[in-house]
Amino acid sequence: MPTHVNLLSQITNAIVLLPAVYVFTLMWLIPDGEKYVPGLILLACIFGCGGVIAKKKQYQVLTNQRPFLLALTSLTAYGLLTYFWKGESWTTLRAFTAITLYAWLISGQTFKTHHVRLLLLISGGCLSAISAYQAASGYDRISGFINPIPFATALATMTLLIALITVRTSHLAIKLIGATLVLLLFISTLLTQTRGVIVPIILIGIAGVTFKLLTSKIKLAGKVSIGLLIGLSAFLTTITAIEDRIDHTLLEMQRIQSGDLSSSIGLRIQMWSASIKLVSDKPLLGHGELHESALAKLEAKGKVDESLFQYSPSHYHNQFLDFLVKQGAIGLALLLLTISLGLRAVYLNSFEPKAWLPAVLIVLTYVAASLSDVPLRHPNTIYMFIVSLIMLSAISQSEIPSPKNNLLKAQ
């Protein structure tokens, strides 16, 4: 009987963790892969509600995570209210609803460091594989099965995380695999030709390499040589991979200087300007999907260019402005609170004190991408972001003992 009970527990754990594994791996290899995540989460909830998972929750981990979970729940609930009141993106709302349920389900559990590391390496392999396939197939901009911009966000996130794994590990095999994946993922990021992600990841990378060299015991001449080698290699790789994009950017800047705002950058400038006008009309609660009719009124009054109205933006290419337009100051406050409390949960993780750095890298990447896109509008990047914070807030270097006073009894 004990053997059967143990087997049932292992099967239940595997099913409960399946959505997290899927989000980092198969979701990127299957067309419309993100659509299957809510179904997997429902399956995990069915199997996880039997009490087996609840008995394995660590009280301290759950205590650290609870403010983050409550903020995420409030953000999702407010999104539901906005959806039924003023309309909103059902795709985004479904993703937030599903991942909120899943975050509560796996909250309080711990994840072994080497398991998370293995998952990230496999994820890097999956992202590299689909990128290589599309590059070989002649895609102008690789995009996975979604869109170049959120795909670039995922690539950049994984590049930085695996770079951190590679630097920290002492295992030669992991260093070689990690270094190879970092190179492949960085090149893949360049091949998305997503300027709003490429520039930040290069800047973050430069800061990381500089810090590592300054704090290392290598002699000054060696530090300078390594820094120049890495910098020159990155520069040549970037110039070669996105030469056409650079030329296109320069051409767009010339058009903007001549007053033509119908280019990609010009339209973004118009969206940001229009969003500020829209926010001033309904600063607290936002417009919801009614932002389209509000934009039409601005165009009729001559306050926005006709090229923007014809473009008919579904979002405003800035995560924070987009939240302000559609969900008002309340929605933006809940978003910022959720991100901040997610970082706090990771920082308070006493089982792995160094978990805060990868969490900061993830948030920096998403914030940088948010300045010119909406990564928390796309299901793929929503799932990756929330699951990453939950796992990092509960990552542990070893198996945690579970004395009775540290267990959260099943409700």
TrEMBL record:
It is found in: Membrane. It is a multi-pass membrane protein. Residues 181-336 form the O-antigen ligase-related domain. Its main location: membrane. Keywords: Ligase, Membrane, Transmembrane, Transmembrane helix. The chain crosses the membrane at residues 12-30, 36-54, 66-85, 91-111, 118-136, 142-165, 172-191, 197-214, 226-242, 323-343, 355-376, 382-400. Pfam families: Wzy_C. The keyword Metal-binding does not apply. GO terms for molecular function: ligase activity. This is O-antigen ligase family protein. It comes from Marinobacter alkaliphilus.
